[in-house]
């Protein structure tokens, strides 16, 4: 019989100031897949049909062998002994997460693909195993872990033995090959499976009154470009600066009531934000001029992931904080949009 289900994956913000490549936060912007798997029949094989709405609808590939989410799903299927998508598969994606803005759009697409593959194959993989598959594609754990687990999450990559290190270091082109137009049914059939237990995580507490204001400039910034400006080495002083603040921040954001002075200082960073200011005009001014003193209700402010979105954590006064940030960006010739977001639960599957 025909089977229908939905997959709902939240967007995320990584780093939250000092937690570079370590912490992530799930946000109430979602990528939602509505999936229909027809009943088995004797009819000729029908390729998957993908439709797409929302953010990025005019640029997302609708070919299942080029779309990131379905390519990840096929990777999971093939690693578990299933060669093809089910015949006649129909998938509609509705996306609320802006592309290239530091809000975890690619991480959400990867997690959606991992869950899609698991559901299509009915493998009943654990969350830990789903994360292994995701980390073979998205090699940094902060966004994908937060998207899968939900809430405020810390994660790390386990030090692997030599064989597992080699397996986990396979080029992405082998994990998710680009399918040429003339690819036959055996093309890319045996992808490298992920080692077990690549990523580990813990979910921190979160104080319920805290909301996230996403101040979203109207330009894209690729993560690759934002990483290019980072140095290969840091001073001990700068690393200690970040470690001290991260140690405080992971507990401070769970306290009720939250302490603005503690959190504002704990969300400062010396590892990535100072180097990215050349890519995001207005960043230094926004993060220094909007404070708990000037804007009561503000707790802290930082770059969201690689940017260019600014993330302000606050309990009240959301519009004033966002509109004053808009003025600072406008003085640099940049227009922004903003949204007040809540902290979202992790990825969910609902069967119709």
TrEMBL record:
Residues 67-151 form the GHMP kinase N-terminal domain. It comes from the Eukaryota. The keyword Ribosomal protein does not apply. Pathway: Amino-acid biosynthesis; L-threonine biosynthesis; L-threonine from L-aspartate: step 4/5. Pfam families: GHMP_kinases_C, GHMP_kinases_N. It is an enzyme of class 2 (transferase). It catalyses: L-homoserine + ATP = O-phospho-L-homoserine + ADP + H(+). Keywords: Amino-acid biosynthesis, ATP-binding, Kinase, Nucleotide-binding, Threonine biosynthesis, Transferase. GO terms for molecular function: ATP binding; homoserine kinase activity. The keyword Thylakoid does not apply. Residues 258-327 form the GHMP kinase C-terminal domain. InterPro entries: GHMP_kinase_C_dom (IPR013750), GHMP_kinase_C_sf (IPR036554), GHMP_kinase_N_dom (IPR006204), GHMP_knse_ATP-bd_CS (IPR006203), Homoserine_kinase (IPR000870), Ribosomal_Su5_D2-typ_SF (IPR020568), Ribsml_uS5_D2-typ_fold_subgr (IPR014721). Belongs to the GHMP kinase family. Homoserine kinase subfamily. This is Homoserine kinase. The lineage of its organism: Eukaryota, Fungi, Dikarya, Basidiomycota, Agaricomycotina.
């Amino acid at each position: 019989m025909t089977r229908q289900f939905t997959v709902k994956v939240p967007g995320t913000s990584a780093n939250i100031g000092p937690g570079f490549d370590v912490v992530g936060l799930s946000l109430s912007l979602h990528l939602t897949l509505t999936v229909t798997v027809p009943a088995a029949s004797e009819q000729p094989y029908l390729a998957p049909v993908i439709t797409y709405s929302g953010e990025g609808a005019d640029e997302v590939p609708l070919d299942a062998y080029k779309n990131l989410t379905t390519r990840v799903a096929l990777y999971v299927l093939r690693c578990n002994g299933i060669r093809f998508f089910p015949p006649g598969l129909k998938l509609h994606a509705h996306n609320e997460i802006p592309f290239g803005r530091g809000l975890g759009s690619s991480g959400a697409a990867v997690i959606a693909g991992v869950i899609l593959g698991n559901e299509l194959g009915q493998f009943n993989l654990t969350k830990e195993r789903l994360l292994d598959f995701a980390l073979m594609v998205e090699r940094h754990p902060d966004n994908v872990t937060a998207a899968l687990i939900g809430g405020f999450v810390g994660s790390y990559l386990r030090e692997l033995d030599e064989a597992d290190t080699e397996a986990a270091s396979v080029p992405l082109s082998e994990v998710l090959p680009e399918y040429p137009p003339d690819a036959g049914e055996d093309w890319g059939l045996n992808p490298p499976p992920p080692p077990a237990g690549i990523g580990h995580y813990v979910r921190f507490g979160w104080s319920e009154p805290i909301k996230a204001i996403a101040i979203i400039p109207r330009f894209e910034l690729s993560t690759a470009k934002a990483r290019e400006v980072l140095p290969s080495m840091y001073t001990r002083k700068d690393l200690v600066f970040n470690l001290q603040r991260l140690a405080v921040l992971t507990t401070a954001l769970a306290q009720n009531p939250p302490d603005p002075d503690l959190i504002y200082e704990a969300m400062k960073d010396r590892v990535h934000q100072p180097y990215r200011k050349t890519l995001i005009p207005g960043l230094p001014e926004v993060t220094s001029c909007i404070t708990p003193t000037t804007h009561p209700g503000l707790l802290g402010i930082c770059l969201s992931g690689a940017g260019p979105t600014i993330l302000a954590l606050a309990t009240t006064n959301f519009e004033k904080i966002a509109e004053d940030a808009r003025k600072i960006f406008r003085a640099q010739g940049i227009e922004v949009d903003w949204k007040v977001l809540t902290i979202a639960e992790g990825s969910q599957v609902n069967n119709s």
